[in-house]
Amino acid sequence: MNVRNRIKMLAVSRGMTLKKLAEKLSSVCEQEYSYNSLLGKLNRESLSLKEAEIIAQILNYKLEFIDINK
Question: C-alpha dihedral over 18, 6, 30, 32, to 10 degrees?
Answer without folding.
Answer: -30
